[in-house]
UniProtKB/TrEMBL annotation, chain A:
Signal peptide extent: none
Family: Belongs to the TsuA/YedE (TC 9.B.102) family.
Membrane topology per record: Multi-pass membrane protein
Organism: Flavobacterium fryxellicola
Transmembrane domains' residue ranges: 6-28, 62-81, 126-144, 165-185
Subcellular location: Cell inner membrane
Source organism, top-level taxon: Bacteria
Name by which UniProt lists this protein: YeeE/YedE family protein
UniProtKB/TrEMBL annotation, chain B:
Protein name per Swiss-Prot or TrEMBL: Transporter
Transmembrane segments: 39-58, 83-106, 112-132
The organism of origin for this protein: Flavobacterium fryxellicola
Keyword Transmembrane helix: yes
Keywords: Membrane, Transmembrane, Transmembrane helix
């Protein structure tokens, strides 16, 4: 039973993610999560204002069902398949985070300092999550995909554009993690 | 209805795998960008390797999809600017809030309500791209 509750190994997890992408190809679809953001914008009626959202989102309903399943999966995994040993990160990372005032995981998936309910009292914390979201939404649509669409699907199909996007992801990530995050969080 | 069950199941497994592998964890993304663990690199590499092998098998054996139609995986559009610049923006957001679009939904499902702010931001960002698309280099 331990196998279920402990952190899943990178090789099992990576293999399963690859198989999920292949399963969607077998079902005649493709693996890409950020497209759902565009569908949601279209569902909200933004197609009347901006041509980019004027498309047949109903043809993408299957992907919204995948997302719904993913949400259920997240619920089950967090509430019924977790234990305190989870998210055992590098002790060096923990002390580095402590210096930034960010709490250690102790089994939690996300830090309270950034995602706890108390952040709702801090305009700065709300702003951090909002800006992060805007960058993710803008960047993934500009690049035409995110981690699932480019890093997994695109690189699996040996696409050079996806390689450019993934290198871009990492350059942006390194700039944020090393240079900007310490300034923002402090 | 049968289709809904298939997609729901694929998504369900995806949600469980991403949570149990901790790819949805802000900590794991921070650790990855600081090169303090192999975990995330291992996950991404094995996923791609599995995908490359699977797609090669599909292509070389002309495997048909579930409806019996041949599988065509469209190439990504040619170009550079959109991939480099868009990728850079995405990376900045990924490392800040520690989640990409899949994990945003998974964390919400798991009950991390403050992630709603991230989702709202992501929708605003998507809208901004739609609005500015014609003015941006691609």
């Amino acid at each position: 039973m331990n196998v279920i509750f402990q952190t899943w190994s990178w090789y099992i997890s990576g293999f399963l993610i690859g198989m999920i992408m292949l399963a969607l190809i077998y079902l005649g679809k493709s693996f890409g999560m950020s497209s759902n953001l565009r569908s949601l914008c279209s569902m909200a009626g933004l197609g009347k204002q901006v041509a980019f959202f004027n498309f047949d989102w109903k043809a993408q309903r299957w992907n919204l069902v995948v997302v719904l399943g993913a949400m259920l999966g997240g619920f089950v995994a967090v509430h019924f398949m977790s234990d305190a040993s989870n998210v055992t990160i590098n002790p060096q990372t923990i002390s580095q985070l402590a210096a930034l005032g960010i709490d250690a995981p102790n089994g939690k998936l996300v830090p309270d300092a950034l995602f706890g309910n108390s952040i709702l009292e801090s305009p700065k914390s709300i702003f951090i999550l909002l800006i992060g979201g805007i960058l993710i939404g803008f960047g993934s649509r500009y690049a035409g995909g995110c981690t699932s669409g480019h890093a997994i699907s695109g690189l699996s199909n040996l696409q050079i554009p996806s390689l450019k996007a993934v290198i871009g992801f990492f350059i942006g990530g390194l700039i944020m993690a090393h240079l900007l995050l310490p300034l923002i969080v402090k | 209805m049968k289709n809904i069950v298939k997609y729901l199941l694929v998504g369900f497994i995806f949600g469980i795998v991403l949570t149990k592998s901790e790819a949805v964890s802000w900590y794991r993304i921070y650790e990855m960008f600081h090169f303090q663990s192999f975990h995330m690199y291992g996950i991404i590499s094995v996923a791609i390797l599995t995908g490359i092998i699977g797609i090669q098998i599909i292509k070389r054996n002309n495997i048909k999809d579930i409806k019996g139609e041949s599988i065509e995986i469209p190439d990504k559009e040619k170009g550079s600017a959109r991939y480099w610049i868009g990728g850079l923006f995405f990376g900045l957001g990924w490392a800040l809030v520690g989640s990409c679009p899949g994990p945003i939904f998974i964390l919400l499902g798991a009950g991390f309500w403050t992630v709603l702010i991230v989702l709202f931001g992501a929708l605003v960002g998507t809208y901004l791209y739609g609005l500015l698309k014609s003015k941006l280099p691609h």
